[in-house]
Amino acid sequence: MKKDIIGKTIYSVVLAFVCIIWVLPVLAVVINSFKVNTFVKTNTFDLPTGEMNAGFSNFVNGMTFGNYPFFKSVLYSVVITVLSVGLILLFTSMAAWYIARVDNMICKIVYFLCVFSMVVPFQMVMFTLSKTADKLKLNTPFTIPIVYLGFGAGLAIFMFVGFVKSIPLEIEEAAAIDGCGPIGTYFMVVVHMLKPTLISVGILELMWVWNDYLLPYLVLDINEYRTIPIHIQYLKGSYGTVDLGATMALILLSIIPVIIFYFACQKYIIKGVAAGAVKG
Question: Residue 242's beta-bridge partner residues?
Answer without folding.
Answer: 236
